[in-house]
Amino acid sequence: AKEKGRNNYQLFNSQMKSASLEKLTMEQELRRAIAKDELVLYYQPQMDIASQRIVGFEALVRWAHPERGIVSPGHFIPFAEESGLIVPIGEWVLKEACRQNKHWQEQGYSPPPVSVNLSTRQFLQHNLTGKVAEVLELTGLDAAQLELEITESSTMDVEYSIDQLHELKNLGVTISIDDFGTGYSSLSYLKKFPIDKLKIDQSFVRDIMTDPNDAAIVASIIAMTRHMKLKVIAEGVETEEQLQFLYHNRCDEIQGYYFSPPLSVEAAELLMKERM
Ligand code: C2E
Ligand code: CA
Ligand code: CA
Ligand code: CA
């Protein structure tokens, strides 16, 4: 038993070591990725259901890894958040999304506004508004072309969030609440936040056709946004049936594979050409 205990201990210890080694390697690789410009943005179109127009592009980061190919954010964003690297990554994403949107305008495209995901660490930075203003100034992008997505979990400190959101709103950018319904949701504070849009999380949308509870939740969120005069977008829409359900429940916009997956810059340009 003693022997077994020691082996377990050694096993556990070596697993711990390799886990932390893996993290360290990941961190070093991520730092290199930022320095070597290996991050790229894909853009997922958002469609207004009634007019069928493209009303937004959500910027989603990918890692163009020299050996592993395109790595999705689920594989590195959690590490980036843990290590704090999400802050430089997020700043790169913000600048690149604004630069690209402005560049498209200069090339004669009519790009919709771009939505950028803000991590909690970014949202908690006191100089965030200054940084956003700086990027808008540097890239020459109109603030009306920028939407910032924050999650409910970033807004635990209600007073701080109200101030931060007011500062950002004063720049002229749009604010949306991402993954709505999955976080700590006190509906009463929502009223106090100067936000423009709710993004209904895809976990509720996925089963709207088969799960009456999810259908009820989605229908209620949409009804609530109408009362609060907020825009609402459903994420993860994959089928015509889901689209019909959302349309009949008067949801404004959709995002999801049904309309389009996230697109490379070239593919987004083709889509804009087709639609212009
Ligand atoms: P998110 O912000 O909720 O982004 C939506 C995710 O859903 C994207 O995954 C998108 O590709 C995926 N998706 C879109 N339509 C559908 C659909 O119809 N069905 C299904 N099953 N999935 C769909 P992606 O690009 O892998 O990003 C995953 C998450 O990584 C994002 O979730 C976001 O939390 C995070 N992320 C991505 N880019 C950034 C970034 O620049 N900064 C930060 N802080 N987080 C980011
Ligand atoms: Ca998002
Ligand atoms: Ca401030
Ligand atoms: Ca989301």
From TrEMBL:
Superkingdom, taxonomy of origin: Bacteria
Coiled-coil residue windows: none
Residues covered by the EAL domain: 23-276
Keywords: Membrane, Transmembrane, Transmembrane helix
The protein, known as: EAL domain-containing protein
Top-level taxonomy: Bacteria, Bacillati, Bacillota, Bacilli, Bacillales
